[in-house]
Amino acid sequence: MNIIEISGLSHSYADGHIGLQQINLTIARGSFVVLAGANGAGKSTLLKHLNGLLKPLAGTVRLNGVPVEDDLLRARRMVGMVFQDADSQIVGETVYDDAAFGPENLNWPREKITESVAAALDLVGLEAMAERSPHLLSGGEKRRLAIAGVLAMQPEVIVLDEPFANLDYDGVRQILAQIVALHKAGTTIIVCVHDLEKVLAHADRLIILQEGRIAADGPPHQVVLEAEAYGVRLPAAVRLGGVVESWLR
Ligand SMILES: Nc1ncnc2c1ncn2[C@@H]1O[C@H](COP(=O)(O)OP(=O)(O)OP(=O)(O)O)[C@@H](O)[C@H]1O
Ligand SMILES: [Mg+2]
């Protein structure tokens, strides 16, 4: 069953720049998709159509069969998005308030909000910092907070745009472990990365965008071989004839 169905999706920015051209794509429920492509390929633009943050020039995105634009609130609830820039996502005065911002807008009972936020902060290891100002967190902690804010809303699909940027080895492993655990629990995962090395072992599909179009799409071990043709670095292990190993070992 496809949780996401994209048909004929094109996007044009206000200045006339074409961000996406005729994207057709279906994503199966529970899959772990890696999206790659050079700077400006249209990755973030595509992701922002999944919950209606951008409006298509043409085409439709359907979530469980329902067009995104028919019910934006439903789309935002179903698809949680961790943006490329974690700093820009900070909205609360405390770590707790920040993570609670999403659930507060879902009209849930107070108890459910408190429980869900506490569980999310616990999952990302920030429960002890709940009363701190989010602005004082390190870059990696801010990223974890952004993820907690999305987790707290219990979305069916989690989209992460460059979740590993600026993270140290341990930070990458922590975020990756959370992503993998969510996937195991049934959440559909879409991760956008420049460095395939960090996630490829866990993905079941690799999609490469180039100039607003899908350039390659399929099983990671096959598609990765074409990566360099589209400006995406071939992982060293693959270059040496091997396979990408998990960073969680
Ligand atoms: N608000 C905007 N107005 C005009 N053009 C834009 C706007 N936002 C993005 N673009 C252009 O659309 C294209 C796709 O941008 P997008 O941010 O989707 O790329 P990306 O694949 O996410 O790149 P990166 O790897 O750098 O994050 C780029 O050429 C970009 O310059
Ligand atoms: Mg981007």
State the main characteristics.
binds magnesium ion, alpha/beta, single chain, 10 strands, 249 residues, 8 helices, binds adenosine-5'-triphosphate
Can you put this structure into words, describing what you see?
By secondary structure, the protein is an alpha/beta fold. The protein has one domain (2-239): P-loop containing nucleotide triphosphate hydrolases (Rossmann fold). Helix content is 30%, strand content 24%. It contains eight helices and ten strands. The strands form two sheets. Strands 6-7-8-3-9-10 form a six-stranded mixed sheet, sandwiched between helices. Strand 1 and strand 2 (18-28) form a beta hairpin. Helix 3 (95-104) crosses helix 4 (110-123), helix 3 packs parallel to helix 5 (139-151) and helix 4 (110-123) runs antiparallel to helix 5. The longest helix has 16 residues, at 169-184. It is globular, with a radius of gyration of 18 Å. Bound molecules: adenosine-5'-triphosphate and magnesium ion. Magnesium ion (MG) binds next to helix 1.
